[in-house]
Design brief:
Layout (H helix, E strand, L loop, with lengths): L2 E7 L2 H4 L4 H11 L7 E7 L7 E7 L5 H14 L3 E8 L2 E7 L4 H9 L4 E7 L2 E7 L2 H8 L8 E7 L14 E2 L7 E8 L2 H10 L9 H14 L4 H11 L2 E8 L3 E6 L8 E4 L3 E5 L2 H5 L16 E5 L1
Antiparallel strand pairs: 1-8, 1-14, 2-7, 2-8, 3-5, 3-6, 4-5, 9-10, 10-11, 11-12, 12-15, 13-14
Helix pairs in contact: 2-5, 7-8
């Protein structure tokens, strides 16, 4: 059992940024009973004074500071200019100016031993860690990250280890600003993964949620609209799943034909929020708003 959440302030871009990090932490904390092994968020729309935001994790075994230096060297070798740098133990966030090919930069970072890329984005970043939402906020100060929209996840490990590698959200390597949180299981994961690897895609984990992110990102990169990509996923992905996706332009949701994994929605003219349980929505909506439950084979999208 896991919990997912998402929120968008529809007018945030024009009216100023919204406290997306603060709201996601409240929603995820309200669902901590669904999983306390790891927690993570994507916060999008905040932008940056730099071209890209890189979120990096280094294996704490060994000298992660040395690995951070290797990351800096790779960025410089690829023509990037580091403008901001923050680290929390084995976690590194870089703001860089970079005009080159993002896939080339991602591949060079991927090849570093003991390093994982949590996200590369022009307007979004992934922050995730083991523990609860409150743990995540205490360590990474998520509540002070503003934006226009975001998604989040609390995880109860059932079939894989409790570690950062298996924490959500999952970034669609090497596509910028596409991330997914997922509740469920894909039964055709291995078949689809082999197909994507045959086309040259690389995966950082063995988690089926990462495949959903890459699946959607490829379709978007080939010119498909977000709604169309979500609709295709209903036919192409087998299993029981409910997922949320965050992109540069907005966010979306999809439920499979069985609709076994819960999702509820509340929406006003200004804000839309989704979560696995209503209690999470009530943590950010204090007025009385009608709840809606998306049904089987239903996709929904919201764009900035």
């Amino acid at each position: 059992m896991c919990g997912i959440s998402g929120i968008m302030h529809k007018k945030a871009g024009a009216a100023g940024l919204a406290p997306i990090g603060h709201e996601l932490i409240k929603m995820l904390d309200a669902m901590k009973h669904r999983g306390m092994d790891s927690t993570g968020v994507t916060i999008a729309g905040g932008g940056s004074l730099q071209d890209l935001i890189l979120r990096i994790w280094s294996d704490p075994e060994g000298d992660f500071r040395d690995r951070f230096q290797q990351v800096n060297e790779v960025v410089s070798e690829k023509g990037g200019v580091i403008k901001t740098q923050q680290s929390v133990n084995e976690y590194l966030c870089l703001g860089i100016n970079y005009k080159g090919d993002i896939s080339s930069l991602a591949e060079a970072l991927y090849d570093l031993d003991g390093v994982e890329i949590h996200s590369i984005g022009s307007v979004s970043e992934v922050v995730k860690d083991v523990g609860t939402g409150i743990d995540l906020n205490d360590k990474h100060d998520v509540s002070n990250i503003n934006g226009t929209h975001g998604i989040g996840h609390v995880r109860l490990a059932t079939e894989s280890r409790v570690d950062i590698t298996h924490a959500h959200p999952f970034w669609a390597y090497p596509f910028p600003d596409v991330t997914v949180v997922h509740n469920g299981q894909l039964t055709n994961y291995h078949k689809l993964k082999r197909q994507y690897e045959d086309k040259g895609h690389r995966f950082q984990t063995e988690n089926d949620s990462e495949l959903i992110a890459v699946y959607l990102a490829e379709k978007l990169a080939n010119g498909m609209e977000l709604e169309g990509a979500l609709e295709c996923s209903i036919d192409d992905l087998d299993g029981s799943f409910t997922y949320l996706v965050s992109t540069k332009q907005g966010m979306g949701s999809a439920k499979d034909s069985l609709a076994l994994k819960p999702l509820v929605l509340m929406e006003t003219d200004d804000v839309v929020a989704l979560a696995s349980e209503e209690v999470a929505l009530r943590s950010v909506f204090f007025e009385e708003i009608e709840r809606v439950e998306p049904q089987q084979n239903e996709v929904m999208t919201w764009l900035i």
